[in-house]
Amino acid sequence: MCSGKGGRDVAQFRFANLAGRAVLVNDTEYWDLERATSGTVSSDPMTAISMVNDIYRLAHDVLANTPTGTYDRRSLLAPVPSPSKVFAIGLNYKLHAEESAMDVPENPVVFTKFPSCITGPFSPIVMRGRAVDYEAEVVVVIGSGGRDISRENAWQHVFGITAGQDVSDRVVQFASKPPHFDLGKSFDTYGPIGPVIVSPDSFQNRDAIELSCSVNGGERQRDTTANLIFDVPTLIEYISRVTTLVPGDLIFTGTPAGVGASSKRFLATGDVIVTNVEGVGTMSNTCHSA
Prior knowledge:
Blueprint: E1 14-18, E2 21-25, E3 29-32, H1 33-36, H2 45-50, H3 52-64, E4 69-70, E5 76-77, E6 86-90, H4 94-99, E7 109-112, E8 118-119, E9 125-127, E10 132-133, E11 136-142, E12 158-165, E13 168-169, H5 170-173, H6 181-184, E14 191-198, E15 210-215, E16 218-224, H7 232-240, E17 250-252, H8 260-263, E18 272-277, E19 281-289
Parallel strand pairs: 6-17, 8-14, 9-19
Antiparallel strand pairs: 1-2, 1-5, 1-14, 2-3, 3-4, 6-7, 10-13, 11-12, 11-17, 12-14, 15-16, 15-18, 18-19
């Protein structure tokens, strides 16, 4: 196995949370990381993510061995079940800023989602308001943490990429001036992520990842991270100037144009949101009223 920039091993893997255990997966089979590495890597997903260098070093050998078993993808849980911090970026696609009638930002618009909002890729979204909206996003999972991370070294601190929904209660979000971005986007279940975390080395171009969102089979959003106003390295550099990033921290990188608020097509009970991120896979979340 060769080493990439910064000395970290180059590896391609798909990391998941299966019944609370850290596993590597393909489409139908899984490898239990604790068992496959004779205890070198923890079974706990949060601890395993902090062992990013071990996973990069051992992933090739693990995947070359006999799988632990097969799995049903709908049984996968949130791959980062209890992150320390969850950041999100507002207005990070030009067309979304325009549809929101807001100026294109000169610096990243950073807010937080409470970690308690995180839920699984096939879990229900429990709505508690009359104007709940979808926002498909590419999500960055931090592997090796740090403070004052340079843009040039930023990708070396990324464990992998997953999909996310920044579900938003627009009434709560805009209940005051300035808006409550944190509260309106942090209701329980308003942060589905998954179904897996994919290593950055798995992408043909990690800076141009396509994402899309449909509701009840009708496409609402489609774009690529090549069109981010502030790309992943810029976001990591910007945020790490303020706070030390730790393994498992999440960065929701922004949503494209097409959100429900722009067309007044908010979510209703029974709606099914399907979120797809190229190379990662598909989440499917059904909406229910509390």
